[in-house]
Amino acid sequence: MAYVNENYLKLPGNYLFAEVARRVAAYRDEHPDADVIRLGIGDVTLPLPAVSIEAMHTAVDEMAKKETFRGYGPEQGYDFLIDAIIERNYTARGVTVEPDEVFVSDGSKSDCGNIQEIFSEDAIVAITDPVYPVYLDTNVMAGRTGKLGADGHFEGVVYLPSTEENGFAPALPDRRADMIYLCCPNNPTGTTLSRNELQKWVNYARENDAVILFDAAYAAYITEPYVPRSIYEIDGAREVAIEFRSFSKTAGFTGTRCGYTVIPKTVTAKAKDGSRHPLNALWSRRHSTKFNGTAYIVQRGAAAIYTDEGQRQVAANIAYYMENARIIREGLSALGLSVFGGVNAPYIWLKTPNNMPSWDFFDKLLREANVVGTPGAGFGPCGEGCFRLTAFGAREDTEKAIDRIRQRLDI
C-alpha cells in the first residue's frame, strides 16, 4: 500500500498565487472583453538585458561545435560566473566570500525551499508574518509543524509579527528558534531592516546556536545607501547565516532561471551526538546529488550582467521598475491610503480601505478596476487587512491601473 506524505494534507488547498490565478481566470471567463491589468505576481515585463542575449547566443553557437561543446557542467556552477558574483556583489562591498561557498542554481525560490532538507526534522522554524509562502510551506511539507490552527498559524512554528506597529522590524523570538527566515528587502511588505536590526538578529543567532536563512533576492533594488545589501556586511554573520540571491528580478531571469546560494564554511550545526558539521558540506552533498547544474548557456547570460555594460543595462531596468513603484506609491498615498515599501523594493504594501478583508479587496479591485493584486492574508495572518501590488508591470499599464483605481474604486 502506498501512503501519501500526510504533511501535505496540512496545507491549505491552493498555493497563494494559484488561487489568485484561479480567481482571475474565473473573472475573465465571465467578462472575456475585460482589460485586466496584472500587478499581482511579481513577474518582470522588460526583456533580458542585451548583454545577456548576446552572451547566450554565443554560448549556443559554442554548443554547436565539437571543440567548444559542453556536457554536464560543475554542479556548483562555472568559475566564470562564481568569480563575477564574488567580485561584484561581495568583494566590492568589503565582504569576503570564497568560490566554494557559492552554489549556482535555477533560482532562489528552489534554494529557499530546499535548504530545509539539511536541517533536523525537529528543528524549530521562525518566520516573519506576513511572509513569502515558500519558507513556511516547505517546512510544513517536511513535517516540522503541527496542524493549521483556526488563527491561521501552524502549531510548532515561531511567528514573528512584522507590521506597521513595530515598523516592520519583528522582535526577537520569545522562545527557542533554530532556523530563522529573514527576507530583506522584504517580500511582501517592500520594507527593509536596518544595519542595527540585522546585527540584533546575528547576535541572537550566535548566542542561541541558530542559523539565519537570509533571502536577499531584491538586494539590487535598494536605493538608500545605508541599507545593507548582504547579511555578510554584519559582524559575525559568516558564522550563522546562509544567503540566497536571484537573477530573476535583478536581470529578468524569471523565465530563464538562475540564482545562487552562499554558505560560508564557518556556518555549522550540531548532530545529536554533539559534534558540529559545516552546512556548506551538507548542502554541497545535497546539491550534487539532487541537482544537475544550471545550464551553461544560462550561466553565460547571467555572467554578462557583471560586465560594466551589463551593470548599466541592469541598472536601467531596475530604475524603470522603481519608477513604477513611485507611481503606485504616490498615487495610492494621494487617495489617503496607508502605503509602505516601494523605496528599496519593487513591492508596495497598503492597508485596505475601511479595514476590508484582503480577499474582499482583491475581488473589489478586480471587478471595479480590472486590476489584479495579491491579498495580504495569503502571506499570513498579520497580512490580513493589507494588500500587495508589484512594480513589474509595463509603465503604461501601471499608470492606467492607478488611474482606474482613482476613478473607479469607491474608497
What does this structure look like?
This protein is α/β, with parallel strands linked by helices. It folds into two domains: 13-42 and 309-408, Aspartate Aminotransferase, domain 1, CATH 3.90.1150; 53-306, Type I PLP-dependent aspartate aminotransferase-like (Major domain) (Aspartate Aminotransferase, domain 2), CATH 3.40.640.10. Helix content is 37%, strand content 14%. It has helices at 16-30, 50-63, 79-90, 108-114, 133-141, 195-208, 237-240, 248-251, 279-290, 296-303, 308-334, 358-369, 395-408, and strands spanning 37-38, 102-105, 125-129, 158-161, 179-183, 211-215, 241-246, 259-262, 268-270, 276-278, 339-341, 347-351, 371-372, 374-375, 386-390. Helix 2 runs antiparallel to helix 10 (296-303). It is globular, with a radius of gyration of 21 Å. The model has no long low-confidence stretch (mean pLDDT 96).
Overall body shape: globular
Q: Biggest β-sheet: count, sense, barrel?
A: 7 strands, mixed
How do the helices and strands follow one another from N- to C-terminus? HEHHEHEHEEHEHEHEEEHHHEEHEEEH
Q: What's the rounded overall pLDDT mean? A: 96
- Total strand segments: 15
CATH class of the largest domain: Alpha Beta
Q: Ends: how far apart?
A: 56 Å
Find the CATH topology of the largest domain.
Answer: Aspartate Aminotransferase, domain 2
Fraction of residues in H or I helices: 25-40%
Rounded Rg? 21 Å
Beta content comes to: 5-15%
Major sheet: arrangement of strands = 2-8-7-6-5-3-4
How many individual helices?
Answer: 13
- Which superfamily, in CATH terms, is the homologous superfamily of the largest domain? Type I PLP-dependent aspartate aminotransferase-like (Major domain)
Q: How many domains would you count in the coordinates?
A: 2
Assign the structural class, choosing from mainly alpha, mainly beta, alpha/beta, alpha+beta, or little secondary structure.
Answer: alpha/beta
Overall CATH architecture of the largest domain: 3-Layer(aba) Sandwich
